[in-house]
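Example 3.2
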Amino acid sequence: MEFLRHAYRRLAELARELAKFGTIGAVAFVIDTGGTNLLRFGLDWGPLTSKVIATIVAATFAYLGNRYWTFRHREQSGLAREYFLFFVLNGIGLLISLLVIGFVTYTLGLQDALSYNIALLTGTALGTLFRFWSYKKWVFLPGAPPEAVPDTPPSRPAAPNSQVNGHMYLLNKTSEENAPPPGPR
């Protein structure tokens, strides 16, 4: 029965993290996709440059949202370490997206907005899967294990004890092991 409770708690925690991660991701997605399209088609910047600039802005938002909301219960291993790892892993996610965009734009020669956005969405989806897995593994580390549930019996019985004259004595111990500390009385 304890196994089922533990499995349920883990599943519920994962579902909460996924919901929060998804919410932050949805807002970052709007920043990324909207910014990329604005830079690409509104300002006529290059397809890869547009993606890089918009991703940097979206990734900064995503870091702050994930650190202070999604994974706030996890250990904080130092802002500099987390920020560095977060952006390295985002760089890998960006690279995945750039490979898809580059393939569609330069290898297939598809320059229209629809093809660009399909490549953008495909690359973003693949990068998101990588980022969720990698953030949990390397950036937002698990916190201390939760405290034991009060109604759960201890895994091994504590040694019986007794207190006499302000001294704690363990029962089932030899008299030498239970001798009071030396000193004035």
